[in-house]
């Protein structure tokens, strides 16, 4: 029954989406505000129903109801509870349901909370959101029904890919999806604004919190995904330029650019067409990412099912939505008045440069990711990976970091080059000193990492410079947000550079009792012992690590053997200390009584994810700051209106 | 999947004789570093740029697959013998095609890929110019 209820909830939600679209179209076409008013509750109900469908899917998973095909194929009654729950989205159909659920919730949230947008633009926005939802409901109900039954039900399920049996699965996909699909709101806003020809500062201020919200989730999702890959794959790498990673990076780059351009639109009424374009592009990147991952066109741990029909379906949706939005853009953008133009040396121009660089990086990642597919279609097999992206994206990233020194210190409207350099004396001096220092102390670090570390040191100073000589108590929260986010970039960059410059790697086969030196640590293999979990057994290496004369501590990397489905995975043991991580994995026996060990000492590698966390925190502070200011000014406006009314009454009597 | 499986199978079959013709060295270079740190750094850099042909988008430097191990051993052995990384890469490309390297060689087919950054910057500058005030007009 539960599965049928879930399916029913989905069908009703789809019908509501159709109703929502019809209300929007008729409301706007025939100027019927009563119809427009009905759209909010419909959108909210749709959000509630999708959430209900998702909860019901989780329910069939937790009950291990093997008569549901999806559960039988992807779950197992012996699996720990957390993976039964998370397993609900650890497969194609479930993850698409999660996608649709978040789309529904996002639409409901806009209907519930958006008060600033001009009412008719809001109606058009919710109509656009419904139109997107309808396509994905169709996809889910026609070709990816998560609630399909199987008869007779098997005795037990086939289990979940062991690489996914990790707490990361509980958080990484939902977080990333909130970011991906949250960008649909920006897309719908852009469509609404194009339909109503309502592009201006007020529109930008209304859109900004939604973009910020999605961007925070994206940042967290990418950061968490990177750390997950780092400890789960067992080779110490944290970014692989894998197409699936690129699929999450592209919306982030677009959303980051959008976040900055929407500020120009809100503050100076410039970059009108460009901001609309970016909003369309950002969600398009989310959809392209979904297509790449879900269509099975790529083989990776993320592509659960390979089914060309589904790929074609998503590709068709992609073509309709992106093509439709671009056509609308081309048709209507002529009617949007050109925005303000800027001086060459000004905050606005700095933000234009930021957008230019981010967009170029986005374009490179997009083409680099799609190129192998294009080549394949022409009958050539080729690979595009780390060396290509390092060479092409890397330089732009460094230029962007250099720009980041000056950007926040530039004045709006007009500034003087000399004055900017005066403000930047200290950061530039720090960067130069750091580069010189690393060059002397660690000449082997390599050019790019040295440059990265030096730039990061200077950027740390430059990013807090906007607070210099300001009354810290009266500085708005969103300024702190900007400072923290930019500081996060410096921290993350320092971690990346330090990891590539100073990592020590030791790959050795050792006998029991043998000690290996890796960086400042001495690691001894004390023995091997068996270990068991709820659905796996393992061989655990009993390691003892010691730093100098410090206290020795145990570490237990494992080789795990899963029964359903039968797989071997590596479970790294990681010791985090203030200045880095000791990363150990256990390999195979070599047949001569020795065990393979892989050991890494990674100085300050944790800064990479700490920086990612800071960037997201900065976004959160910024979001809170904006909302706070708006509530305050709204309260002040209400108070003023009340006073005026009182005064009016007094004058009357 | 089918195409990929076939490719993998072909790669495996092709790899067999190619990797087996040298007799197994005393050291297991698949999982043991070279003693000279400079050579090891060279080998490591090259391994990170080579694709594990049977894996799901991993380099041979971070894969558990047997074939990745064999390829690591091959890279280290040849580096130890004094061969240049580029020569080893070329040798592998000749055997397995461009698919094996993550650093696609520049030719008529990859020219659009490698020229992307320049084209994008030019386009971007053209677009950005429109949002800037003309000199002298203001």
Automatic annotation (TrEMBL), chain A:
Molecular-function GO term, any one: lyase activity
Any single biological process term in GO: cytochrome complex assembly
Transmembrane segments: 6-30, 42-61, 96-113, 122-142, 177-197, 209-229, 249-266, 273-293, 313-331, 352-373, 393-412, 424-441, 447-465, 477-497, 607-628
Residue ranges constituting the Cytochrome c-type biogenesis protein CcmF C-terminal domain according to the UniProt record: 315-626
Membrane topology: Multi-pass membrane protein
GO cellular component labels: plasma membrane
Ranges of residues in domain Cytochrome c assembly protein: 89-295
InterPro entries per record: CcmF_C, Cyt_c_assembly, Cyt_c_biogenesis, Cyt_c_biogenesis_CcmF
Subcellular location: Cell inner membrane
Keywords, comma-separated and alphabetical: Cell inner membrane, Cell membrane, Cytochrome c-type biogenesis, Lyase, Membrane, Transmembrane, Transmembrane helix
Keyword Hydrolase among UniProt keywords: no
Main location as per UniProt: membrane
Protein's job: Required for the biogenesis of c-type cytochromes. Possible subunit of a heme lyase.
Family statement: Belongs to the CcmF/CycK/Ccl1/NrfE/CcsA family.
Protein name: Heme lyase CcmF/NrfE family subunit
From TrEMBL, chain B:
Pfam families: CcmH (PF03918)
Chain ranges of the CcmH/CycL/Ccl2/NrfF N-terminal domain: 30-136
InterPro entries linked: C-type_cytochrome_biogenesis, CcmH/CycL/Ccl2/NrfF_N, CcmH/CycL/NrfF/Ccl2_sf
GO molecular function, one term: metal ion binding
Main location: membrane
Keywords of this entry: Cytochrome c-type biogenesis, Heme, Iron, Membrane, Metal-binding, Signal, Transmembrane, Transmembrane helix
Entry annotated with the keyword GTP-binding: no
Gene Ontology terms: cellular component: plasma membrane
Membrane topology field: Single-pass membrane protein
Coiled-coil annotated spans: none
Residue ranges crossing the lipid bilayer per the database entry: 108-128
Signal peptide positions (record): 1-20
Location in the cell: Membrane
One GO process term, biological-process aspect: cytochrome complex assembly
Family: Belongs to the CcmH/CycL/Ccl2/NrfF family.
PANTHER family per record: CYTOCHROME C-TYPE BIOGENESIS PROTEIN CCMH (PTHR47870)
Primary role: Required for the biogenesis of c-type cytochromes. Possible subunit of a heme lyase.
Name of the protein in question: Cytochrome c-type biogenesis protein
Organism of derivation: Stakelama marina
Lineage: Bacteria, Pseudomonadati, Pseudomonadota, Alphaproteobacteria, Sphingomonadales
